[in-house]
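Suppose you are handed a protein chain with no further information: no name, no annotation, nothing but its sequence. What can you learn? This example shows the usual starting point.
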Amino acid sequence: MNSEKLSTRLDTVASFVEEGATLADIGSDHAYLPCHLVKLGRIQKAIAGEVVKGPYESAVKNVRKKGLSDEITVRLANGLEAIHESDGVDTITIAGMGGPLIASILSNGHEKLQNVKRIITQPNIHASSIREWAVQNGWKIIDEEILKEDHKIYEIIVLEQGHAQYDDLEMMVGPYLLDRKSNVFIEKWTRESDEWKRVLGSLENAGNTNEIIEKKEQLQKKINLIGGVLSN
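A reasonable first move is to predict its three-dimensional structure. Written in structure tokens, the prediction is:
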């Protein structure tokens, strides 16, 4: 993967960045995503934020190599601290992290979001954490995607400011993904359901403490929720 040819995962994230956006890519790694979008002419300006020194240095080197130092500013910073008010950022991408970490980054940097129009997230696991954050913080889901690459399944959640409510099933699997029920969606949730059933079975002989009873109830609820989807 490089800025000319992104992975399918990052290319799908890029597809949700609107023409002319001012982008902050948080956890930018080699800055492949902002470099790609500037090279395409989709955006004019971007911030590439990275908290780890090694990836930060790789991003600086890559941006210089592409001759994009005037268009892309690389900053060593924790989360949304990479964004300065003078940047005029209206779009944020955060890809390749766990859902709870992404939600934490958004919560910790909430004051940076006032003028942001769109947040595009690609959680590796626990995407429901982002949906929960959105509902609690005045953001709504405007689109989602699910895809498979190199035997791994990824979800992408696109948020804009606004209010929406989702039921338990929609929070777990995503309202747009639930509506479309793609083959990858069915594969993911069949796999998840099988794992929940396996864990539930292993708990049958684990005693009846309050903690185990609660865990079994939670698992059974999730199995029942997704079972209704997979049986249709």
